[in-house]
Amino acid sequence: MPVTLLRGENLRLYPQFRIEPNPSLNLIIGANAAGKTSLLEALFTGARGRSFRAASLAEVCGARGQGWHVFMETMEADDHHRIGLGWSREGVRLHLDEDRHARVEDVVRAVPMQLIDPLAHRLLDEGPTYRRSFVDWGVFHVEHRFLDCWRRYQRSLRQRNRALREKAPARAVRAWDEELSHSGEELNRMRQSHLEASSEGLKNWCQRLLDTEAVRCEWQRGWPADDSLHQTLERNLEQHQRLGTTVQGPHRAEMRITLAQSRAKGRVSRGQQKLLIAAMVLAQSEVLAASSATWPILLLDDFASELAADFQQRLAWALQQYPGQKFITAFEVPSAFRSGSPMEVFHVEHGIVSASPHLH
Question: Where in the sequence is the domain holding 12, given as residue range(s)?
Fold first, then answer.
């Protein structure tokens, strides 16, 4: 679902901006602090309803401080969307086509978008929350029942944990076990299925990017493999009562990632990590496209960061093979992109963005 128009007002250092992207490859070039990442942030925020750089939408506001607005148009074949997101001190406004009170999940579903930025290594280096979120984003787009299931699980978990904290009788805790178990088992099945669907694509992309197919993503579901979730909850009730929380379940799930028989966390270089994450995103995107015929939009901030020339060539080749739309920031047009697929180059300087002469 390529973005055909992006415009905004009072976002970061931009009083206003407007670009008409290429449906394939878009390079955003400029010096440090020129506003390159802010354009990616505008795209991401419009499609996700949140920023990847700020904890609150208020922080995205520019110098005038009264509010900001982002507007996007997307088009693929006969499918056309108009999305607007605005923030002011009165609140947040989100619209999708004719719906002036759209839900964030509807926009996320309409415009799937993934980001690889300099902090993407958190997917490998930090806690399991990042890895669960990565998997859940993919499951959300291929399993329409996922969001309802996830919400049912979270609601039951909150209620059970509340009963545990308040030291309610065992029967009051057990009252939530059936719904928690049913939704939790279903949630795990969807996650596991999604990982299995992307495993072959991940091996293929790792072979192209890292010269190895020895990559493995092992899903650890959050409770013992030999038990049902209901059995686990019952068996560990006394422990949960003592701790005041539910210790086992899908909310404790983890994805263990290995590359060439080494844990990806802390044992491979940052350059290898970046290519591994790119391979994971590309493989997941293939699964989404097979399910919906829509290729997610890819945002890649600081293309050359942590990549030697050979790794840059490999990543550029992979991105040029990717059928979906790409937005990539760099200080200048990387040599790896100076031939190949058609592209648009946008130059950013002092909060002003303009189209630049470029090669096709």
Answer: 1-112+294-360
